[in-house]
Amino acid sequence: MKSDQPLRREKILKGVPASPGIAIGSAHLFSQDIPRVEERSLSDGEVALEFDRVIRALEKSSKELDKILVFAQQKVGDAKAKIFEAQIMVLHDDVLIDTIRKRIRQEKKNAEFIVSDEIGKYASLMLRAHDEYMHERAHDMEDLKNRIIRNLLQEKLISKLEGSVIIVAHTLTPADTMILSRNHVLGYATDMGGVTSHAALFSRSLKIPAVVGLGDVSREVETGDMLIIDGYSGTIVVHPTQERIEEFEQKHERLLTFEAQLALLKELPAETLDKHSVELSANIELPEELEYVVVQGSQGVGLYRTESLLIGRDDFPSEEEQYQEYKRVVDRIYPNRVIMRTFDIGGDKIAPGMAEEANPFLGWRGIRVCFDRPDLFMNQLRAMLRASTRKNLAIMFPMISTIGEVRKAKEYILKTKTDLRAKQVNFDDNIQVGVMIEVPAAALTASQIAAEVDFLSIGSNDLIQYLIAVDRGNSLVAGLYQEFEPSVLTTLKHVINAGHKEGIWVGICGEMAGNPLATALLIGLGMDELSVVPAVLPEIKKIIRSMNYSEMRRVATEALRLTTGEEIELYLRTVFRKAFPEIPLDNNNS
Residue 279 is part of which domain span? Predict the structure, then answer.
């Protein structure tokens, strides 16, 4: 703390937990100076020289990224390092280079202005999308643009730091994260970003605690300030008291011991003390997460979000492109199962050709888009069926509202099978087909739907949002979103009973599945499968293996008896603290 400042009060900031771990140390406020671009007219004699400057800047940028790529491959592996390969490919894109050349010649403007304007167009397009993935890719494109401009201006980027520090920044690009990791970085805290950002993925691979999406931490913190970063709960403590530091030091020691115990569970099944088995699988957003899923000891993939294939594209992937991607996923997870959800676009997910809607969450999304674009739907179904030859792929339909939609979707599968048979293409003729229960209408008619499919998977995020009419993205009402509301538990129990009556399994793949506070409740209600984000999977497995199924059923019975969400949460917390005093619970877990 700076000696010329008065004692500053402790402040706690909440963000998104992006990489687990706890760090206590001094902050370093990291800011990339955005190169200043001025528009300047060229004389006829300057035009050719100006394009030579562009070529040299592109070559230098490519050499820099080549070095970062090699370093990233060594530190985080080939799969995650591919983002740098993608940036290098842009630098060698003949169409882009030719466009820049033509614009310099025709407009007679300086290279910095043309490069900034041309590459900036792509970034602006991505930022206009209501989609976290696209925003992250926009930041990657901005980073590449700024790298080229810095090299045009021959500016240097300082990345050498003194001592052990917690990096605080507005945002961190993949390159920032890799380059800074050559220093002794204790943790990362950023205003922007989400759990699927490349910076977050790199932080997890590097085992560096990270909290993102903090809003304005870069304004709250100055270089030299004492910080605590808690990557488990998504908490940052600025100017912590000595008591707070000691509290987190003790928490850190408990968690290190706990994580060592969790590592021993990797190969063990998810079963209770009285041998009741639960399928514990992982949700994945990106193929790059596959290795992490395997390392965490997942029994498979309970939700593979295929719309990640649309990132950074202005068209839909071909059948062959999809087939190659799906095959890579099922081959890596084999013999465990992969449940692939057909494109769940619309709502908050951008896709090529999607129109702006006044209320997208109740609009043209999910299975509705598939039915209106049968060419896209059939392409995807053919790719999935072709990738199913190892018999570990299942297909799941999103945003189902009625039994008629289920039957119509199944008709498309039958037609696809007929087409493939005619071409003598192999596939799993007994492939499992399920639906997501995320619309209240589907939950109410779960008995009829269950009779038509092989499994039900509850998408708790949307189901809760629709049940209690709360948009979690609206700060005015987000506090009303409560996953332990009695109406939610009653609905879950109704869906589980409906599935079991028809002899099919029922799972849950929303955030509620990965909430340690809800584990005993969900299994006690009769949930057969939990699909969670990979980071929490070992903790959920520990909870399952530490309790009796009979005890979990008593927990569920008592929770169903209570009349408010607050009462249920308090009850679950009491049970959890008694059973697992070594696992910290905070507001992020509820």
Answer: 268-589
